[in-house]
Design goal:
By secondary structure, this protein is α/β, with parallel strands linked by helices. It is built from 12 helices and 11 strands. β3, α1 and β4 form a beta-alpha-beta unit. The C terminus is likely disordered.
């Protein structure tokens, strides 16, 4: 099925997309690889010049997946159809029980740019997302969700910006939402001031303006990404990662819709709308434990500025951006305390999943 009702002029053509019948639907920022990789397939990538780049492709695309068979082919096909062809694709399978393993092995056998890793234990979403960063060999890196779709020019347009402007650490395009059948829903237009030369301006919009964190699926300088804390074992760690990247340099948005984000009922944020439930999805070891997710988020914002290496004045200006964040989120901070009080009065059991996240900012 080809994407339906995509407005004219919204980016380059997309591959055919739509659900594959008979396959299991699953979360989008998926579970993890486990301790031991049982399979690694693929050795080389082929660049736009036609030459094989065996060990060091310019771009690494990391796709962590758990039970993503329903949409996985469409995601992988959109990567393999890129006009910039000198990349590696790392598939990290978190002990899937559906068709995911068969699909991954099939693609890895067909294309030497693909390396497939299968693990035996679920260690949570954050671990698996970080695993593909660890395995990456490129200069630039892109995370890919198993249920999203990229236009053929996604990598080319982003790499051109990063090659041209060394002050840019993340390049990402405009995005649009599609539904589970691949039908266009709406364009996602978040006008964030993340290209400003001043770090505190970038930080302000990333932590205080409501947005969907699509920048995390852009193309990032791998060396800069590896100097951050990556995705940690708490809810909204992707927001902290974006803030930390913003302390390292500017972001750039390509003014063309090249990224289709799939909204469906089994996405993690929809299947697990309550913060306490989503904590265990990030890190199964925390299941049943009392946590303070909103206080943790505040603390991590403070820490990411502290380890930024910015000059004292710039660092102080970044800290000041936490004041409007506190004004916006004080009710959620009180929710954490109220939840802890109720949890302390009850029997020692798995916490009741009753703390809703409110606005995702």
């Amino acid at each position: 099925m080809r994407i339906s009702r995509l407005p004219a002029g919204m980016g380059s053509s997309f591959p055919e997309i739509g659900p594959e019948p008979g396959l299991q639907q699953s979360d989008r920022t998926d579970g993890s690889s486990a301790g031991r990789d049982s399979t690694a397939t693929g050795r080389a990538s082929v660049g736009t010049s036609g030459a094989a780049t065996i060990m060091n492709p310019p771009v690494s695309v990391g796709l962590p997946v758990w039970n993503g068979g329903r949409y996985l082919r469409q995601a992988v096909d959109s990567v393999l159809s890129q006009t910039f062809t000198d990349f590696e694709l790392i598939l990290s399978d978190n002990a899937s029980t559906d068709e995911t393993e068969r699909i991954c092995r099939e693609y890895a056998a067909r294309d030497p740019r693909i390396r497939y890793y299968r693990s035996e234990v679920n260690r949570g979403a954050a671990w698996n997302f970080n695993r593909v960063v660890e395995l990456a060999r490129g200069t630039y890196f892109k995370w890919m969700a198993h249920d999203d779709v990229c236009a053929p020019d996604f990598l080319r347009r982003c790499v051109e910006v990063l090659e041209r402007d060394p002050s840019v650490v993340v390049c990402y395009p405009r995005a649009a939402d599609i539904d589970h059948n691949g039908r266009f829903r709406r364009e996602k237009n978040f006008n964030l001031n993340v290209s400003d030369d001043r770090a505190h301006k970038r930080i302000h919009d990333l932590i205080c303006v409501n947005h969907s964190c699509f920048e995390i699926f852009g193309v990032t300088r791998l060396a800069v990404l590896r100097r951050t804390s990556l995705l940690a074992l708490y809810v909204h760690s992707d927001r902290v990662l974006l803030a930390e990247l913003a302390t390292r340099g500017r972001f750039h948005r390509v003014e063309e819709v090249l990224f289709l984000h799939r909204e469906h009922p089994d996405r993690s944020t929809r299947a697990l709308p309550e913060l306490q439930a989503r904590i265990a999805w990030f890190d199964p070891a925390q299941s049943g434990r009392l946590t303070f997710p909103n206080w943790r988020l505040f603390r991590e914002y403070v820490c990411c500025v502290g380890r930024s290496g910015l000059p004292p004045r710039d660092r102080a200006l970044c800290y000041l951006q936490l004041l409007p964040w506190l004004r916006r989120h004080y009710r959620l901070l009180w929710q954490d305390l109220g939840y802890a009080f109720r949890w302390g009065l009850g029997p020692r059991r798995k916490p009741v999943m009753g703390c809703r996240p409110g606005r995702a900012t």
